[in-house]
Amino acid sequence: MKRFFIKLFCFILIVSSALIIVPSCDKPIKYSTGLEYTLNDTETGYIVTSLGECEDVDVNIPSTYNNLPVTEISRGAFKDEMKITSVTLPNSVTNIGAFAFINCINLTSITLPNNLTEISRYLFSGCNALESISIPATVTTIGDYAFSKCAKLTSITLPNGLTSLGKAVFSECEGLTEITIPNTVKKIENTTFYRCYALKSVTLSNTLTSIGDTAFWQCTNLETITIPDSVESIGGLAFFGCSKLNNVTIGAGVERLMFMPFKNCNALTTITFVDPSNWYRTTDEKDCYSKLGGEKVNITNELSNFIDYNAEYYWFKSGDINIEDPDWL
After folding, report:
1. With contact defined as beta carbons under 8 Å apart, do 149 and 128 qualify?
2. Alpha helix segments (H runs only) across 238-297
3. How far apart are CA 107 and CA 110, in angstroms?
4. Which pTM does this prediction carry?
5. Integer Cα distance of 79 and 100 in angstroms
6. Cβ(265)–Cβ(239) below 8 Å
7. What's the pLDDT band for 284 if we cut at 50, 70, 90?
8. How far is CA 114 from CA 76, 78, 95, 137, 264, in A?
9. Residue 100 in contact with residue 75, Cβ under 8 Å?
């Protein structure tokens, strides 16, 4: 009988232990307080206007304020706020104004809302501690200088729906090593990758139509580039000072090579033209656009003139204009 009660006691102890409720270890989400807000024009939501009296270095913005959604971060809201190290934005935010995080020099990470459509101009310019960022798939536009001078940014994935990549977006991103341009982007604007010294791998979209002036200026680790057949124009000094560039393929669709696109590319030994026929050179930019005048050349023999400091030529393809007609010359 004694043995029976011992077994019964052990059974009850085991069952009781199983029913003990272990309290959750999850901590409640802590949102930042002291931020400054203003009601939007329609009085349907709030705009964050500044850091205000908030002392957080890890800023976590709530999705609601005074029972209304937080929908916007105003222009320059966190400009020059050097103490901020991270920012989390709620999905209720649909617009972030230009310059909002410019020169936040200690910002290392930011979580963007998942329905954002635009990265405004100068948004993260000068955030030189930012190493990586995830751009939402909904983003279609990245404005001028948006990531300029983000010196520690090593990689970034551009969304497939991106249609507009602004001027100097990644200029002086000295740590950026690779980039793939999605097929929805048609133009690389002026100085887009200016002085991206570490940039070694560039994949251009097969629907790209133009590469702007000084687009890859002094990308000193870039060794090879293939210009797709879809590209029609390569801007002046586009690859200036790419000192390791040694192999270039120019697609069949290229019709204009503006002022010295490969100047000071001293390692360049091979330029392959997919279609080397009907090329002309001129010292007058107007000729290059009108496709009139100029001197017919064997483009494959022009390598030294692409690199020579003193060879100030523009090149153009005759296209459907009969440029050899005496009436044009």
Report:
1. yes
2. 285-290
3. 8
4. 0.85
5. 6
6. yes
7. confident
8. 21, 20, 11, 8, 43
9. yes
The SS3 assignment for 18 reads helix
Q: Taking 70 as the threshold, does the pLDDT of residue 308 lie above it?
A: yes
Measured CA to CA, the distance from residue 25 to residue 310 in angstroms comes to 70
CA angle 223, 227, 232 (to 5 degrees): 145
Structure tokens belonging to residue 256: 């204009």
Q: Enter the tokens of residue 284.
A: 């007058």
Question: What are the tens digits of pLDDT across the range 209-228?
Answer: 999 999 999 999 999 999 99
Residue 202 three-state SS: strand
* Residue 66, amino acid: N
Q: For the residues 154-161, what does the mean pLDDT come to? A: 93
Instruction: Name the H helices within 20-151.
Output: none
Using DSSP's 3-state secondary structure scheme, residue 316 falls into strand
Q: Which of 119, 129, 122, 152 is nearest to 83 (CA)?
A: 129
Q: How far is CA 223 from CA 125, 132, 302, 308, in A?
A: 27, 24, 20, 19
**Which candidate, 218, 301, 211, places its Cα nearest to that of 258?**
211
For the stretch 47-98, pLDDT in tens is 999 999 999 999 999 999 999 999 999 999 999 999 999 999 999 999 999 9
What pLDDT sits at residue 7? 52
The DSSP element (H or E) to which 138 belongs, if any, is: none
123 token code pair: 């948004």
Q: Give the DSSP letter string of 120-173.
A: -TTSSTT-TT----PPPTT--EE-TTTTTT-TT-------TT--EE-TTTTTT-
Give, in order, the Cα–Cα distances in Å from 49 to each of 22, 100, 150.
Answer: 42, 9, 23
From the list 193, 182, 187, the residue with the least C-alpha distance to 221 is 193
Residues in CB range of 148: below 8 A, 6 or more apart: 122, 125, 126, 168, 169, 170, 171, 172, 173
The residue assigned the tokens 């020099």 is: 105
Q: Which residue, chain included where needed, has tokens 């232990």? A: 17
Residue 105 has pLDDT above 50, yes or no: yes
Per DSSP, the three-state class of 135 is coil
Instruction: Output the CA torsion 265→271→275→278 (10° steps).
Output: 60
